[in-house]
Amino acid sequence: MIKRVNHIAIAVPDLELAAETYRRLGVTVSEPQVLPEHGVRVVFLEFENVKLELIETYGEKSPVASFMRKNPSGGIHHVCFDVEDLQSTSETLKDAGIRVLGDGPPKIGAHGNPVLFAHPADLFGVLTEFEEPR
Ligand SMILES: CC[C@@H](C(=O)O)C(=O)SCCNC(=O)CCNC(=O)[C@H](O)C(C)(C)COP(=O)(O)OP(=O)(O)OC[C@H]1O[C@@H](n2cnc3c(N)ncnc32)[C@H](O)[C@@H]1OP(=O)(O)O
Ligand SMILES: [Co+2]
Q1: What is 2-131's CATH superfamily?
Q2: Atom of ligand 1 minimally distant from the CA of 9
Q3: What is the ipTM of this complex?
């Protein structure tokens, strides 16, 4: 089901400051993207072997707001895996007793691909995102 790591996300209190910090460390940083449907602003850090996603809360109902209240300096927020088929992934997760978050169809993520999230309490304390590359 899981093919590879797509990205690791770090929640930050100030996206511009975090982006500038990584630029100074020699990292290629994308332009900020606003994703109102996900309640975040995001930039990507490009590495040879993996992408990192820096996320900042956006809007009144950001799913990251509560995490930031508990972790005001920021912290590792989620890991994302590529999967072949999101529908069968959703069914496999549910069969394994792992809660899939949200009740509608998968949202489109920052890369233009459908994504879903599984509850951190059911995956060893790690919020886990699954993405189907198209
Ligand atoms: C950029 C777009 C997209 C992409 O394409 O890559 C993204 O990545 S968007 C990223 C933001 N979106 C999401 O996070 C969506 C899924 N998340 C959620 O639905 C919620 O955040 C949540 C996981 C259900 C938590 O909701 P919240 O309102 O924060 O509830 P609580 O504060 O009560 O948390 C419940 C429980 O879970 C623990 N928790 C919360 N967040 C995390 C986390 N990131 N990692 C690990 N654990 C987390 C929290 O501490 C609570 O634990 P207990 O206190 O033990 O109950
Ligand atoms: Co993500």
Answers
A1: 2,3-Dihydroxybiphenyl 1,2-Dioxygenase, domain 1 (3.10.180.10)
A2: 8
A3: 0.98
